[in-house]
Amino acid sequence: MAERHHPSRVSRSFWIAGLGSLVWLLLRSGTNPRRLAYPCQRTALLSSSGFVGYTASILGTAHFSRLLTRGIVLAGTGLLTLTILLSAILVGSQPLVAPVYASLASLPGWTSPTAVSDVFVVPDVPVPECSLDGGTLPGTAPCNTAAYALRDRGVDTLVDAMESHGDYFYRTTAHPAGILGANNVVVIKINDQWGGQGNGDGRGRLSTNTDVLKGFIWRIVQHPDGFTGEIVIVENTQDENPGWNTTPANAQDQNQTYQDVVDAFQTLGYTVSLFSWDSLNYSRISGGNVDAGGYPAGEYATGNANDAYILLEDPAGGGTDELSYPKFQTANGHYVSMRYGVWNGTSYDADRLTFINMPVLKKHGMAGATIAWKNLIGFVTIAGNAARFGSWDAMHDFFWGYAGGANRNYGLIGRELALVRHPDLNVVDAIWAAIDDNTYGKAVRQNVLLASTDPFAVDWYSSEYVLRPVISYDSQDSSAARAGTFRDATRTNQNSASAVWPGGSYPYIDLLDGYDGNTPSNDEKNQMNVYVAAVASPTPTATPTATTTPTPSVTPTATPTKTASECVSDVNGNGTGDVADVMYTASTAGCLVYLPVIVATWHKPWPTVTPTPTATQTPPPQVAGCDLFPADNVWNVPVDTLPVDANSASYVNTIGSSAPVHADFGSGDWPPGSGRPIGIPYADVAGTQPKVTVTFDYADESDAGPYPIPTDVPIEGGPDSVDDRHVLIVEHDNCVLYELFYAWPQSNGNWTAGSGAIFDLRSNTLRPAGWTSADAAGLPMLPGLLRYDEVAGGAVRHAIRFTAPQTRRAYIWPARHFASSLTGAQYPPMGQRFRLKSSFAVSGFSPHVQVILQAMKKYGIILADNGGAWFISGVPDARWNNDVLHELNQVHGSDFEAVDESSLMVNANSGQTNAVTP
User: Fold this and answer.
1) Across the strands, what pairs with 275?
2) SS3 sequence, 188-199?
3) What is the mean pLDDT of the segment spanning 37-50?
4) What is the 3-state secondary structure (H, E, C) of 610-654?
5) In terms of DSSP bridges, do strands 896-899 and 833-836 run parallel, antiparallel, or are they unpaired?
6) Is the N or the C terminus of the chain less surrounded, counting Cβ atoms within 10 Å?
7) Tens digit of each residue's pLDDT (9 = 90 or more) over 244-262
C-alpha cells in the first residue's frame, strides 16, 4: 500500500497563536474576503502555520425546506450475497477471495435501495512509472510504448468499475445511454488556476494531475468502437495562470505539463489539443434572456462563427447577464457550443458533445473546498464582474451566497447546471489533496480517484472522507456532509439547480435543508451508492526469456492477474451467462475476483467479437471479384499448427522483442495536411483499360508489360512522394495483378519504374528464382495487405505483409529474392513467416483489432521487405479508425514466434501447398 502522510498533532500553543492570527485577520480583512489575497494577509496566514480564521462572512443560513422522495431499488446486495456463496462453493478448500468491487476499510462503500446517484472510488492508486516530459514517449522500455506509458491503472479501474455497475462510460450499440460516443468531441475541463503555486509538499499540486489526465485521455481513445472524435482540454483561469507549460506540475514527474501530455498524444496521431477559455473573457456577447425562445444572439445558428462567451440575462438574479458559457472552434475544426452541442453548419448535435469535469481536491478559504461544482467557476467568465454583479465581492454572493447577501440563495453554478450545461461526468483528482487555503498551501498525498455523474454526490463523499480527515484546521468547513462553509455553499447551488431543472426530473442528490449536524446524515448517505474498487495487480508484460516470474512474498489473493475481458467469458458460446461461465471464472487463476461481474450479467446477452471458425472449406480472399490466388496458395493457408522455427528466438530478438507492432496504414494522411495517404493503395480496372509502356531500372528481373495504368492511378505516398511509390492494379476481367515499384508517369503517357511484376491470380506460379518483384522478397504485395472490408467483415483469411529493419542475404520459400549483405544466422531471411503466439489474449482489444490479431495467429505474417520493425501493411481507407489501429502498439515482438512452413511446400517454384484449408 502506498505511504500516506498525516498531519502532525498540533500543540495548544499553536491554537493560541492561531486565535491571535484570527483576530488580526478579521480586523485587517473585515467583511471584504478579497483582502485575504493581499501579500500581507498571505504572510500572516503562512506565519501562523496555516491557521485560517475567517468564515463568518460565508456562514450559512437555512434554505427553504423540501425533500424529494426516491424509489429506485437495486439488487446489489442480493448479487453480492450470491457471489460470496458461489465463491465458497466453487473454490472449495481455497480461501475466500474478496470481490474487487468491495468496500475497503479506509474508505467506506455502501449501497442503498433509495440511491439516486452512484459514486465510484479508487483508493491506493499506483504511482505512475512513465513521464512525458518533453512531449514524447521515453526512449527506454517499457515506457517507450504508448500502451504502457499512457495508461493509468487508477483510471482504468475507475472506468471498469463504472462499466461493471451499469454506469456505462462508453456509448455503444449495446449501451446507447453511455457517456462517450466513438465520434464525440470530448471537452475536459481541468483545474489550473493556481498551477505551479503552493508551498512545501503542495508546491505545484494545486492543479489537476497530468498523470490522471494522461490516463483518462488514453482510456477515451480505447473506445471499443474505435475513437474517431476529438479531445480538447480547456480551462478559464480568469487570467491567473501563465500557461499550459507551467512547472512544477502536479504529476509524479513535476516536469510533465499539460502541454507535454497533449504533444505526446499528437505525436502519436491522436486528435488532442488545448484551448484556453481565458482568450474568450473579453469577447463577450449579450445573448438575451435565458428563458427566451430561439437561440441567443451570438450563437452559430444566428450566423456568428466567432469564438466568444455568450452572456445570458437571468431574471432570478440581482445583476445583469449573470449566466455565461463558451463557444469556440477546436483545433480540428469543430464548432462547439457548450450549451447546444457541436454545430455542423445547419444544426446542433447535442449528443456528440461530451463534457468531462476534472477538478483537483482542494481546501478553499471562501467556499470551504474546491471540488466538482466549484470547479465550474472555470466554465463561466467573471470578466466584467463590476457591471454584471456589482463588484468582485458581490459576484461571490452570486456563486455561493454570503450571510445577509442580496443574492444569498441564488447559486449561480447550480443554475448553470440546470439551465446551461451540466457535466456528463465528474472525475475528482485526489492523488494529492491540497489542505491549505487557495494558493498558499501544502498538500497531502492521498492516491485516490473518484467519479460520478452527480457533482454534489461526489463532492459530499470526497470532502467528507478524503479531504476533511487531513485538514488540521477548519476541517468541518471543508465537508459538504457536516454543518459549515462548504455544505452551505453546496446546498445553495444544489437547491438552485433542483428548483429550475428542466422537466422537473432533477437527477442529483438533495442535501437536507434542516440538517446541520456534525456527522454525516444517513438520510443523505442513503441517496447514493458508493462503490470502492481496488486496483488490480498488473499483468506481467511479455518477455523474450523463458525464466519464471518470482512468486511474491505475500500472495495477492484479493487482486486479479487477468483482465475482466479475459475472465468474463461466454465459455460455452450459448450467448448468455450461466453456471458454466461462473465455474470458468471461479476456477481460472486470477479470475475469481470477477465473480460479481459474471453474476451481474447472468442471463444477459454476451457480445461476440471473435469470428467463429467453421468446418467448411474456406474460400480464398477476393479483390474486385477475383480470388487472390487459389485457396491452397501459401498466402491463404493457416500456419497455426506448424512447428516453431529453430531460430525463432534469434529472429525475434534481432527484429526487436520489445518493439511494438505498427499499422503502416490507416485513414487520412500523414503528416496531417501532407496529402500522403497512409498505406499502399491499389486500382481496379477493366480489361479495356489502355496499356502503356514502362521502362525499368531492373529490367532483367521485371516483367516487360505493357501495364494497364489509368491516368488517375493511386500512388503510395501520393503523387508527390519520393519514397517507394508502389502502384498496384487489378485487372478484374482476366484476374491479373500488376505491381510496380518506384513508378513515375512521363509526359508522353508512358511510365518509368524501378521494377515490375505481373501475376496471374488464378495460378500458383512463383517468380523465377532470384527475381525481385515490386517487393524486395520477390512476392506479390496485394495478397498480404489488410483491407478494411475484410476486417469489418470479421475475418482476414490470408497472411499479412510486414517489414523488418535488418534481413539476411537469403530467402526461403515462397520468397524469391533477398535485399541485404548481412549473413549472420540471427538475421531473418526474406519470406520468413511468423505467427502471433496462441497464448496471446486478444479479448481486451477492439473488435477490428481482434480480427487482425486472430489472423496473425492463424495465418501469420510474412517478411517481405526491409523497413520498420513489425510494420504491417494495409490499404488506405477513410473508414479505418487510426485510434483503434494504434491498439496494435500493445503487441510486441516477443509475442511472436517464427514458423517452419517448409512442410507445406509442394514445388519450390509454386506457391501451392499440400494443406487443406478448414
Assistant:
1) 234
2) EECCCCCCCCCC
3) 38
4) CCCCCCCCCCCCEECCEECCCCCEHHHCCCCCCCECCCHHHHHHH
5) antiparallel
6) N
7) 999 999 999 999 999 999 9
